[in-house]
Amino acid sequence: MKGHILKAWTLGLALLPGFALGQTVLTRDPGLGAGSIGGSGTLGWSDEAALAPTAAPLGNSILGDRTPGAAPLQAVAPDADVTLPGRDAGGPPDDAATVLADTFVIQGDRTLIAAGGVVAWYQGARLVASRIVVNGATGELTLEGPIHLSRPGAADPEAEAVLIADSGQIDRRLQDGIIRGARLVLARELQLAATELTRTGNGRMTNLRHVVASSCQVCASDPTPLWEIRARNITHDAETRLITFDRPQFRAFGLPLAAAPFALTAPDPTVERRTGFLRPEFRTTSNLGFGIKLPYFVTLGDHADVTVTPYVSASRTRTLELRYRQAWANGVTEWNGAISRDDIEPGETRGYLFGNALFELPRGYRLGVQVQAASDRGYLLDYDITEADRLWSGFTLERVTRDKLFFGRTGNYHSLRDDENNETSPAQVADVIWQRRFTPDYIGGEGLLEWSVHAHRRPSDRDGAGRDIARASVGLDWRRSEILPGGVVGAALAGIDADIYRIAQDSRYDDLVARGDPMVGAELRWPLIGGADGVTHMVEPVAQILYSPPGRDDDIPNEDSRLIEFDEGNLFSDNRFPGWDARESGLRANLGVTWTRFDPTGWSLALTGGRVLRADPDEAFPDDSALSGTSSDWLVSAQYDSGIGLAIANRALFDDNLDMSRNELRLGWLRDDLQLSAGHLWLDGDSRAEVELPDISELVANVGWQIRAGWWGRAETRYDFAADRAQRASLDLTYRNECLTVDMGVSRRFTSSDSVNPETSVGLSVRLGGFGTSQDDLPGTVARRSCMR
């Protein structure tokens, strides 16, 4: 398959992984979670070693344009309906209870006394007590503690609602009754302690009197929790999973901070989605001043929701943000937007709209839709939306099967860069690619047939500057491999590519141009393996000879193959140009060798070296390219994996005089207390080019580390050594204990232009345990309070 098909390119359309059609309920609102505030998002880490992302991920789509994708589209199964005992559950009633105890005594009036490690199960509820007295006439139970009672009908009794008490009386169904000295524990997080608890409505309503609610651990030596909510009464509805606080008072360190003279309602920790206010966010920036965001989340059934977020800062901005999400049986969509009036652009209305949708169609086709628009690039940066400077809106249609691929897209590009003119840049672009893999008769091997169509249009009507192009191409590649004597793997290669171009509004080129480029080649690989004392060595030298008729495509403008990479991924490629407008030609040899060492202790080391030799220089490559001339630069790469989280990779290009033209170093180190991802890129500039290219030396680093128990730090930087200045930097701190999460951070963006000013941003967010996303989703440890006895 061609190099430009094998490369992992982005499309800019959010055809994103992790989306399962047929599950039609939106996920928990992400605003409930604790994340980065200062500007560097929480890094996503796996348990495997990972190398530094030296650039934004390009995804796995076929074409690359580096435009941003819209928000991830996700859907999950709906919450199961809660059916409590005493209601029709659709099956035969089971009125039998199971009781285990050390001793049983039955008195003459049919009173049953069970004592010593009593455990009783009845219709999904579980009761643990030291002593139970069952009234033979009424069936009521008198309980002596310590008592442990799960909610009747709970799908997961341990993870949902658990009642802990000293004593009480309850009916025979373990549902309604009066409990004294009670604590209600919800989702193992939120505790509600009361002097008296009453359960009614067949176990549905739990009412607590003189209540203290907190998720903080309380010690006998220090009974004051870090925070608590006091109320005269708190009611928990087991079916709606709502908690109602009657005239609540919020305290921190025992001191009253806020109170409400009316009732407040909040979802319990088991609720995934519920209409109401989300966690507020405080943000201070040098351009917008101090401000607060207060999101309000509205559920529109199981399949849709909307989030309205007013953002107000101290006299500098009035912003309204909106997000709409909806899921269907065969599709999902999300739309994000905002509208603002601020002092950065006085008198101007600014805003943005990003939306995307994905639909499953019959016969395995997937339709994608994306809309991206912004008033200006500065708006996207000022309001911390995205750093993208090119936007794409349009449609895609794709279908991938075992041996066929279809991909089509059409849309419009809009650049937000100060140095790019949208009138003279390709705006309307359309692409169609069809591929089929097959096994030819008679000759065997593997073949790949490809048809593709591309067209783009520039809005300008000026000659040359407004050049419009349409192209139709067909390609056929064939390869057959055989194992030769001595373990050598030989392969024969052949292919042909043909194109026809229609060029308009550029008098330097003919209106209609056609070309054909055949290719033949052979390849020899000799994989060798050996080892001793548990160490395994693998060596594989490779030699590839290719020939295409030499020539230079001066009659075709090169629009899609101007950025040429040379690395171990395309060392043995028949064409290293990423697009269709330029192709390698002439007689050439791709030579290389790879050595890999696997150690029994788990670490491994791999080295790859090679270069390209040509009979004559290929004029398609610029003079400053690593692939120009009769011999390319030397390519040497090394990769090390410790097997326990550390990974290092380095790639270098240098000529026969050992003058280096490129070096790229990446480092990843993942441990429980350290998550490091860093990369450095150095490129030699070229003063001989038509436009002088400066040296590039940039460092990108993300690091997260455990400062101490409960404290997790995150830092990010991008530094330009050639310009001797940082492009961006941020530092975030997160503190977590069993009942509180505090996020605070500061970030600085140093870049500036005619429409963008440098900006410093400071953020703060607080989450109380027992409300919203679980703290287990965050990296690092939790500082847990210990009670000394």
Automatic annotation (TrEMBL):
Protein localization: Cell outer membrane
Superkingdom of the organism of origin: Bacteria
Main location: membrane
Keyword Plastid found: no
Residue stretches making up the LptD C-terminal domain: 349-711
Alphabetic keyword roster: Cell outer membrane, Membrane, Signal
Family: Belongs to the LptD family.
Function noted in UniProt: Involved in the assembly of lipopolysaccharide (LPS) at the surface of the outer membrane.
Self-association state and partner proteins as the record states: Component of the lipopolysaccharide transport and assembly complex.
Name of this chain's protein: LPS-assembly protein LptD
Organism per entry: Paracoccus angustae
UniProt gene name: lptD
